[in-house]
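Note to self: keep these together.
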Amino acid sequence: MNIKIIRDEDVFSKNKFGPVDSWEKRETVRLVLLKSDKKIALLGNAVHDYLLLPGGGVDEGETLEDAVYRECKEETGSICTNPKKIAKSKEFRARNSKEYRTHCFVVQKGADINEDLRTENEKDLQTYIKWVSISEAKQIYSKQVEQVQKGEVRYYNTAFNIIRDNYFLSQLTDDLEMLP
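Structure:
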């Protein structure tokens, strides 16, 4: 499996931050949550109009798969099954001196849960799920990547996330047979 390396200069026209002496490592997961009709979940919020793949940080002592199950419940309100890792990235974010090692999984949507497990921050941001076809997701990401390239995305981490998630989505759609 190839690893996509993403640095500030891959996201922004110029790197505003100096060299980093030491990178704090953080494992994260992203998921392509797939319904039986082959639509996938994208996560939005009330702060900006960008849509991203659900996911988040891996807690200490947690396996990648356990983090996928937990993040799916927290961010989408659904149980997921059959995690299959499709891609990995390393993002070197100079502003925070962090190296994110992000693992992307395709998962099947299971039953909805009857509890809101979003974090307080996610509730404050009024996060929501939008279900789209893979072709719609590709169109959405094409526009969002263009906005990043034009310097129109004002949120540092969101710009990184758009570039990263676009890569993950390209890995998914290049091999549709991998879908569960």
